[in-house]
Design a protein that fits this description.
Length: 332
């Protein structure tokens, strides 16, 4: 009788299986029309993301909160989404003609609308890949929010730690904190996140802006607050897909238009029989790769290309971005 060999899967095989499971789950949830990320319907998606452990999300599997991954995601989601219990993914359905002001994430060109205190609408304009992108980001921040909850919630009745009460007190001031107040708050938040004072201090300002310099505290507080309410009050956060979005993507409108346009251009240039290298990139990255180094060579003399791209990505780089965009439009 032959011995059964112990077959173990490689990391690459595990990742491939996790990606496939994520895509199948997302398609199912999309067809269903809604789901609760931290409920039973979100279990498979969370498990797949934890198995995949994408590098952009850092050490997602650790008990302490992942700060760099959180910054990466927050920069790609609309300001205020951490406060919203209901997130509605929509198509372009005319909100630009309403009184709602568009909220554009710093590092993703998509329009989002804060409908009320509890709801954020996020416009999907690039098809299913856009949905996969957003759902993985949201799954990540929800996982991190429950890490916060685990560290501050002392019992099922809702009693919380002293550090959490001090954070709540700092957030409720609704004003820019003094240096002393900021450092006191960071001390408490470091305990909540399982991080050192220095680690939190180093990343603190990266979350902030001129209008909200202490946004880091608000993000941590609201992520934890909604996670606590999910456990104590069974008040689960919910992601929905609008009927129009489901109808349009169900008919593959975006994909068909995109594919037809590309095939027409390839035919016009007699490239259909040539080998083609396909890249995936967003529009402003393509623009930067073509025009940025030429336009900004004097300003960033002797600097490598990636340094220039990083400068363009910074939140206060409106002036240099405008220069590159103007050059691109001139050559359009």
């Amino acid at each position: 009788m032959k011995e059964t060999k112990n077959i173990s899967r490689s990391r690459a095989q595990e990742s491939s299986a996790a990606i496939e499971k994520m895509y199948i789950t997302m398609r199912h949830l999309f067809n269903r029309g809604f789901y609760k990320p931290m409920g039973i319907s979100g279990d498979t998606l969370r498990e797949a993301l934890l198995a995949l452990r994408p590098e952009i999300y850092g050490n997602i599997a650790e008990e302490k909160v992942e700060l760099n991954g959180l910054l990466y995601v927050i920069e790609r989601l609309p300001i205020g989404i951490e406060e919203c219990r209901f997130i509605n993914l929509t198509s372009d359905e005319g909100y630009s003609k309403s009184h709602f002001q568009p909220i554009v994430p710093p590092k993703r060109r998509r329009n989002c609308y804060r409908i009320d205190e509890e709801q954020m609408n996020v416009e999907i304009t690039r098809g299913r890949s856009d949905i996969y992108d957003i759902l993985t980001h949201l799954t990540f921040i929800f996982i991190e929010s429950h890490k916060i909850r685990n560290r501050v919630l002392l019992d099922d009745a809702g009693e919380v730690s002293r550090d959490w009460l001090k954070l709540q007190q700092a957030v409720s001031q609704n004003k820019k904190l003094s240096q002393i107040e900021k450092e006191k708050a960071i001390s408490h938040v470091a305990n909540i996140l399982g991080r050192t004072f220095e680690e939190v201090l180093d990343i603190y300002d990266a979350f902030g802006s001129e209008l909200s310099p202490d946004r880091f505290l608000h993000v941590i507080f609201w992520l934890g607050k909604l996670a606590i309410e999910e456990v104590v009050d069974d008040n689960k956060r919910t992601i929905t897909f609008s009927p129009i979005l489901r109808e349009r993507l169900g008919h593959h409108i975006h994909g068909e238009i995109w594919a037809t346009n590309i095939k027409e251009v390839l035919k016009d240039h007699r490239l259909l029989d040539r080998p083609i290298h396909v890249i995936s990139a967003n529009m402003h990255s393509v623009m930067n790769s073509i025009f940025a180094t030429t336009v900004l060579k004097t300003r960033f003399k002797d600097k490598p290309d990636f340094f220039i791209y990083e400068e363009l990505s910074k939140s206060g780089a409106n002036e240099v971005r405008s220069q590159v965009e103007a050059a691109a439009l001139k050559h359009a």
